[in-house]
Specification:
Blueprint (H helix, E strand, L loop, with lengths): L5 E6 L7 H11 L5 E7 L3 H11 L3 E3 L2 H6 L5 E4 L6 H10 L4 E4 L6 H14 L3 E4 L6 H11 L6 E9 L6 E2 L16 H16 L2 E9 L4 E4 L5 E3 L5 E8 L4 E7 L8 E7 L2 E7 L10 E6 L6 E2 L14 H19 L7 H20 L3 E2 L4
Parallel strand pairs: 1-2, 1-4, 2-3, 4-5, 5-6, 7-13, 8-10
Antiparallel strand pairs: 7-14, 9-12, 9-18, 10-11, 12-13, 14-15, 15-16, 16-17
Helix pairs in contact: 1-8, 4-5, 5-9, 6-7
């Protein structure tokens, strides 16, 4: 007898272009024994109907509230822009519905903390979409570090390109230009990636940071319109890990002609490198290399099949599918394997410390926020 399948309603599904269409829908469809997508809600009924027809979803709802309130929905997926996360996630929690929310959980630490507190008080499972945590290359790096491949970690360096926040912007992403929307290079690519880095190396306990807005305006690709940008396009973080090792991070807006993504871990006995084309490690195709002992250089390492089994091969749906599989296990067994809203608060606290350091200068302890 098959285990219960959870009926999913997605809020924010636009066929072809949206993250929900590119990642969530194929990820859920890759887990047919766990989930069935049965409903969609967008900003209007007409939009929901169009998305449902295009994506093969049985039902379109007139609003997020109607979807959340439906007895036919077991799990709510929130895949809208960050400024709308708080109200929709709060509604889902108050309805007692388990909810998967795209990172970031809220527009800042206060919103995230309020949602985590509410979910805990109501006994509702909230899963946060920090899927870089389960990218196979990061999982393998974590295993290697824990097994002593590099010995004692001495330091780590990360340099990456942000893709957005460069000279041009797509029309649908113009909201990224205003940091008040909560979707910045700090919150999105840095937030996703540093979650995975901390999972390998341990938490960052204090930071000194700079957030710099070098590009004051950008061009909209579709219209050639020039818009002001007040969001930082340069991010530099000098951090200290729990074991005392320093970590240096530099994110650069746009697309670099040089390094797209490179994480280096230097230890007493060896070195690891994880590389990719860009700094959105949550959906980048990554590779891992290592060297130790008498090796004079790093060489490519193959991720074991035990870490990277039969999942969707493209990193966009694959990493999200991994989180959904963990969520299904947690819902059935009462375990806590998927990253929760409480986990999200810890990540928001790190981001708030970076913002505080960049604003006031000096070093900021994560625990002080």
């Amino acid at each position: 007898m098959k285990q219960q399948r959870f009926r999913v309603g997605i809020i924010g599904l636009q066929p072809g272009a949206s993250w929900a269409a590119l990642a969530h829908l194929p990820a859920l469809q890759a887990l047919p024994d766990d989930y069935q997508v049965v409903g969609v809600a967008n900003t209007s009924l007409a939009s929901a109907v169009s998305a449902a027809l295009a994506c093969g979803v049985p039902r379109a709802f007139s609003s997020a509230a109607e979807l959340i309130g439906s007895p036919d929905i077991d799990v709510v997926v929130v895949a809208v822009k960050i400024p709308h996360h708080f109200d929709i996630v709060k509604m889902a929690i108050e309805a007692g519905k388990p909810v998967y929310c795209e990172w970031a959980l809220g527009n800042g630490l206060a919103e995230a903390s309020a949602l985590a507190d509410l979910a805990r008080a109501r006994g509702v499972l909230g899963v946060i979409g920090t899927q870089a945590l389960v990218a196979p290359e990061f999982e393998y790096a974590r295993q290697l570090v824990s097994e002593g491949y590099v010995g004692e970690v001495l330091s780590s360096t990360l340099i990456a390109s942000g893709l957005a926040w460069g000279a041009q912007v797509d029309q649908r992403n113009t909201y990224l230009l205003d940091p008040s929307n909560g979707a910045t290079m700090l919150t999105i690519p840095f937030g996703h990636t540093i979650a995975a880095v901390q999972n390998i190396l341990g938490n960052i306990i204090e930071v000194s940071a700079r957030l710099v807005n070098r590009r004051k305006s950008v061009q909209v690709v579709e219209t050639n319109e020039v818009l002001p940008m007040t969001a930082p396009d340069q991010l530099i973080v000098d951090g200290l890990l729990t074991n005392g090792a320093p970590i240096a991070v530099h994110y650069r807006g746009g697309v670099s002609r040089g390094t797209g993504f490179l994480l280096e871990i230097n230890g007493t006995d060896g070195d690891l490198q994880i590389s990719g084309d860009h700094g959105h490690a949550q959906f980048a195709q990554l590779s891992i290399s290592g060297g130790r002992g008498e090796d004079r250089e790093v060489r490519p390492l193959d991720v074991p099949t035990s870490i990277d089994p039969e999942w969707p091969q493209h990193p966009v749906p694959r990493n999200v599918a991994r989180l959904y599989a963990m969520m299904a296990q947690d819902l059935r067994s009462g375990t806590s394997t998927a990253p929760t809203f409480d986990y999200a608060v810890g990540l928001h606290r790190l981001i708030a410390a970076v913002e505080e350091s960049a604003k006031a200068g000096g070093r900021v302890s994560i625990d002080s926020l």
